[in-house]
Amino acid sequence: xxxxxxxxxxxxxxxxxxxxxxxxxxxxxxxxxxxxxxxxxxxxxxxxxxxxxxxxxxxxxxxxxxxxxxxxxxxxxxxxxxxxxxxxxxxxxxxxxxxxxxxxxxxxxxxxxxxxxxxxxxxxxxxxxxxxxxxxxxxxxxxxxxxxxxxxxxxxxxxxxxxxxxxxxxxxxxxxxxxxxxxxxxxxxxxxxxxxxxxxxxxxxxxxxxxxxxxxxxxxxxxxxxxxxxxxxxxxxxxxxxxxxxxxxxxxxxxxxxxxxxxxxxxxxxxxxxxxxxxxxxxxxxxxxxxxxxxxxxxxxxxxxxxxxxxxxxxxxxxxxxxxxxxxxxxxxxxxxxxxxxxxxxxxxxxxxxxxxxx
Length: 359
Ligand SMILES: C[S@@+](CC[C@H](N)C(=O)[O-])C[C@H]1O[C@@H](n2cnc3c(N)ncnc32)[C@H](O)[C@@H]1O
Hints:
seven-stranded mixed beta sheet; 9 strands; 50% helix
């Protein structure tokens, strides 16, 4: 065997541009951990709405150590997450950053996004080993930050869009929900979507299901706290085997692509939904052509897909691994492959595609 080495001319300016871009990436990687740290220690919340605090004042208000807080604040200021006033030596949180980092009712709320990302990074050495063999890594095997971060990341978007936009975009569904419908929320995780729908439609009954026992325990607790446990039940069940039939509406929020056998799951929906019922599928926003997803949203989703969604699907039977950027054409194939005759894009946001499938 011989190897031929070609002399390739390297443009030093382009090389240094790339190195400095990479420095920014390293800063961003570390900042993801610092955002989670600031969220867990209450640093952003304590800073929000103040005219500015010194590290000592912020440490005192949060019961934390000043030396850590000072270093954390400087990293935040260098990254533009926090403002620094040179004259007073005080740090403040601009109003827009305060919304994004502390207001859990805003659709722009970000801490859950970072928490899921950090949970994924924590588990990345395990995923690295799976990438050698092609084995999967189940959703249930991840650290708790992945599960809780996912709930905190998705809930603000559901609050903003599910009841005002997504359900009304489906043909005749809101009328059924108002009258009293039977709804299955499959792959419901901590049940954020299930509970939100139950709160909006008091005449309807909801059955949430997920194969992850820990998530279902949390979902039950959340339903009790929200006062809807009388109309919301939860089952530990895979998407191919949850109980009940005659559903008016079956929903799947950001989970179809995580399943090993999405076509099998779709067939189960087909058998469980009424002949005039509806299946709502919410999936990450993506274009059909891979190269059209090479943008910041696609980048984040391909990252999550590598560390979370693809391993999750590969850990299950069939292991179809649609990935988090499957796109409409691929989802259509899955849905029609299970015998649904109607399929359309009903709504979308920059982060989500909402599909309606009907028998
Ligand atoms: C990204 S999370 C979304 C959770 C929830 N729907 C939400 O929007 O917050 C994906 C969920 O799919 C669930 N899941 C994955 N494969 C499944 C399967 N085969 N059957 C049921 N649930 C599954 C996982 O346990 C996880 O809760």
